[in-house]
């Protein structure tokens, strides 16, 4: 009989005996896998690192970063050494993060490199580089009690001041056991965890419960539809934990395809005929819709905010399962959840193991159980106010039916009390408004009057010509008279202000409406999120960014910033933003139009997979070994030094070589050992092969032929400084994941002066993200044998010097570039 896990330390202790993969991290470049024993070792070494920094049991460690393996290692390392973790939302402003650090009295901060330092007096570790700091012995185990605190999670929900919720091992583990039993998950499952793990739903349901049951947890470095569907293709995903907006995005994407094309319309009609059919039948009937998600998918879990009925209906219609639940941070966080057999209902499910609920006379939901928190940190008065006779006051209204299913009616503090004394719940009115044609999203608030509150709706229209009067009239036609909307206004921004779990900041919306009524209309306009992202990358203050500001000329955006901005837009707006949208003439207004329309570009070139087929080894042998290498052998007397530096080197590497001639590939090919000759790929400038339309037709045709010849014999793939460089980097990561090496010329072009050109940053970006060794290679002689612009080669001597492999760690992009350039320059002159 298995021993029941009582503490999170017990979960860590179970890792050594487990097989399989604990964490899969797809960082947008390549995939990293952590086995359970490997994760256990890293956690214990992280505990040693904390001890080295003077951290003892009970000390606080702030964690400020995105979903990634290092976050889990940092958190479990804190647990293992008895420290208390203080998770901070990755989107928190530096000022807010500083307040949390100060209030919690954190003695150490582990933060993402993307977060600006704010408290210089608190020691800080960079989360991205955490593994490079773990060359330490493993910490010894310690006894852990169930009443020891694990986390202090600061939360304000959508109302009130932030408060630190203290959760113990016993609180969280009660929820972990309940979730595993309720959802019936085990080591055969893999979960795609898309909720922030700095929040308790993401931490408990997306990390701790899966690891306690032996599942694999999949994290994405870029939150895009493309990255998500790539995970479905490449990993055996059975469960997805996501916020409603992601599920709504999936619904919109599938819905748009159903409205276009004959097959889409046929499937749409078929969904009407199969309305009452079992889900298994629907999965067969809608094979084309289910295929992108893989056929191992069991269900989606929606959390962080309420999901709209239209998305749930869509899932039911096409045979998907969406499980809903209810909980709060103070409850670790789950109180109720739907079972898999009840997916798609209108309730928030039934209570999980060990949880008790009852409804107070005024309709408030009261909860009791071992998962309920112990206290608000350093706030005994607020703690006392939150309990009544041992029951936790959730602050939410709800109803329980005869079967124990919970139905949420709304937040107690958000309830609108009309002049007639009737309670109106925004959660009842907003779904009706959102279903009205011309409404993209709505927020219902109460505006104080002398005799009560007025029901006011704020709407973001999807149709610019929509009429406020028509929208209000249509919505009221579907509402009880006591719920009628009395006034309606349009929100001027593209989105409502929201928390990171995508709950509307209702208080901020209400305040904007009040200010607008006073005549300060500008107060109702939300600050542009896109301009905030541009400001974050360019360091130009938001107020100085105008519609006609050019990203390159006026805001000084560079090529690295272009990639960073594209990534931020992709994550914030959840669509695959192509960086090709940003050119030298792009203005802020242009970019806002692209983001608003979710525009897509046609690719200038593709990244074919056929050069990496195993059969292409024959083409390499014929093209390189028999043809090019023999031509090189005829013209070049080659001397190779440093081959011994490659002994003992295993796995894929990056060969960084100076570029002087079209003959460089053939010379380096001959210099490499056989195990690398047929297992490398090389990027080539797309501008040279494809994009110069001014050349004569015969020349363009010849260049295309030479590209495809190079793709067949050297696995060339296109890269560009103007188009799709991010996709080229992702393609490079895929090649590395496939076990192949990369031969790259960091100068990006052939020299004309016989002197080495400055190295560009692309190679350093690859090394920073791919985490593979780089082998510097310097060669000379080919600049005289086959120089740039020469029609034919001459006879001569060439020397190739292979350097020792270098593994970079915590160095910056600039430091990596400088070091690599120096090493290649030295080798070139040996």
Automatic annotation (TrEMBL):
Note the CDD domains from the entry.
LPLAT_AGPAT-like
Q: Which SUPFAM superfamilies match?
A: Acetyl-CoA synthetase-like (SSF56801), ACP-like (SSF47336), Glycerol-3-phosphate (1)-acyltransferase (SSF69593)
What would you give as a GO molecular function for this chain, any one? acyltransferase activity
| Domain Carrier: from-to ranges | 521-599
Q: Which Pfam families match?
A: Acyltransferase, AMP-binding, PP-binding
What biological processes does GO assign it?
fatty acid metabolic process
The family assignment reads: Belongs to the ATP-dependent AMP-binding enzyme family.
What protein name is recorded for this chain?
Carrier domain-containing protein
Organism in which the protein naturally occurs: Candidatus Kaiserbacteria bacterium RIFCSPHIGHO2_02_FULL_55_20
């Amino acid at each position: 009989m298995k021993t029941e896990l009582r503490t999170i330390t017990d979960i860590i202790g179970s890792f050594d005996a487990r097989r399989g993969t604990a964490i899969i991290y797809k960082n947008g470049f390549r995939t990293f896998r952590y086995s359970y024993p490997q994760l256990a070792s890293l956690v214990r070494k992280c505990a040693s690192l904390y001890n080295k920094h003077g951290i003892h049991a009970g000390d606080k460690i702030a964690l400020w970063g995105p979903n990634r393996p290092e976050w889990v290692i940092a958190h479990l390392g804190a647990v293992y050494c008895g420290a208390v973790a203080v998770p901070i939302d990755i989107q928190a402003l530096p000022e807010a993060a500083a307040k949390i650090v100060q209030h919690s009295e954190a003695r150490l901060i582990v933060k993402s490199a993307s977060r600006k330092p704010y408290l210089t007096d608190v020691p800080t570790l960079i989360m991205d580089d955490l593994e490079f700091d773990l060359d330490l012995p493993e910490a010894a185990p310690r006894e852990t009690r169930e009443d020891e605190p694990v986390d202090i999670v600061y939360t304000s929900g959508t109302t009130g001041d932030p408060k630190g919720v203290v959760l113990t091992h016993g609180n969280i583990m009660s929820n972990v056991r309940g979730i595993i039993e309720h959802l019936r998950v085990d080591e055969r499952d893999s979960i795609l965890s898309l909720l922030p793990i700095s929040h308790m739903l993401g931490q408990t349901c997306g990390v701790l419960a899966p690891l306690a049951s032996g599942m694999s947890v999949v994290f994405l470095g870029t939150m895009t539809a493309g990255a998500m569907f790539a995970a479905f293709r490449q990993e055996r995903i059975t469960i997805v934990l996501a916020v409603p907006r992601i599920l709504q995005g999936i619904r919109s994407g599938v819905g748009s395809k159903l409205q276009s094309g004959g097959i889409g319309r046929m499937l749409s009609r078929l969904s009407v005929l199969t309305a009452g059919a079992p889900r298994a039948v629907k999965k067969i009937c809608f094979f084309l819709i289910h295929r992108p998600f893989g056929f191992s998918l069991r269900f989606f879990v929606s959390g962080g905010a309420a999901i709209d009925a239209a998305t749930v209906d869509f899932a039911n219609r096409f045979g998907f399962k969406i499980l809903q639940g209810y909980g709060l941070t103070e409850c670790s966080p789950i109180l109720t959840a739907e079972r898999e057999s009840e997916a798609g209902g209108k309730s928030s499910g039934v209570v999980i193991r060990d949880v008790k609920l009852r409804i107070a006379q005024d309709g408030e939901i009261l909860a009791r159980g071992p998962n309920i928190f112990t206290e608000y940190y350093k706030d005994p008065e607020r703690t006392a106010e939150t309990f009544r006779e041992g029951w936790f006051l959730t602050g939410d209204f709800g109803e329980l039916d005869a079967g124990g299913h919970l139905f949420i009616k709304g937040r107690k503090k958000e309830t609108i009390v009309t002049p007639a004394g009737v309670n109106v719940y925004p959660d009842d009115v907003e779904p009706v408004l959102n279903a009205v044609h011309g409404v993209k999203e709505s927020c219902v608030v109460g505006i104080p009057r002398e005799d009560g509150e007025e029901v006011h709706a704020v709407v973001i229209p999807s149709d610019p010509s929509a009429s406020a009067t028509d929208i209000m009239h249509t919505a009221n036609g579907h509402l009880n008279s006591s719920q009628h909307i009395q006034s309606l206004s349009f929100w001027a921004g593209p989105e409502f202000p929201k928390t990171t779990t995508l709950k509307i900041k209702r208080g901020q919306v209400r305040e904007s409406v009040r200010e607008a009524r006073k005549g300060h209309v500008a107060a109702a306009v939300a600050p542009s999120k896109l301009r905030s992202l541009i400001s974050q990358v360019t360091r130009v203050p938001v107020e100085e960014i105008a519609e006609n500001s050019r990203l390159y000329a006026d805001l000084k955006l560079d090529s690295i910033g272009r990639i960073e901005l594209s990534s931020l837009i992709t994550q914030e707006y959840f669509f695959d933003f192509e960086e090709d949208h940003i050119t030298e003439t792009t203005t802020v207004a242009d970019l806002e139009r692209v983001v608003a329309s979710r525009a897509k570009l046609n690719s200038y070139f593709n990244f074919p997979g056929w050069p990496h087929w195993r059969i292409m080894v024959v083409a390499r042998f014929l093209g390189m070994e028999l043809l090019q290498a023999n031509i090189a052998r005829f013209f070049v007397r080659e001397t190779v030094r440093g081959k011994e530096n490659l002994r003992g080197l295993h796995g894929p590497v990056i060969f960084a070589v100076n570029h002087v001639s079209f003959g460089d590939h053939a010379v380096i090919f001959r210099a490499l050992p056989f195990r690398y000759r047929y297992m490398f790929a090389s990027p080539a400038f797309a501008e040279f092969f494809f994009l110069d339309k001014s050349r004569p037709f015969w020349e363009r045709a010849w260049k295309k032929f030479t590209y495809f010849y190079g793709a067949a014999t050297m696995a060339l793939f296109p890269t560009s400084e103007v188009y799709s460089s991010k996709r080229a980097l992702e393609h490079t990561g895929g090649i590395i994941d496939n076990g192949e090496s990369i031969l790259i010329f960091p100068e990006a072009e052939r020299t004309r002066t016989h002197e080495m050109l400055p190295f560009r940053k692309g190679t350093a970006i690859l090394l920073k993200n791919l985490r593979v060794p780089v082998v510097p290679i310097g060669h000379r002689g080919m600049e005289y044998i086959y120089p740039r612009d020469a029609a034919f080669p001459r006879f001569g001597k060439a020397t190739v010097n292979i350097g020792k492999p270098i593994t970079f760690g915590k160095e910056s992009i600039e430091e990596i570039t400088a070091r690599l350039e120096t090493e290649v320059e030295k080798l070139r002159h040996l």
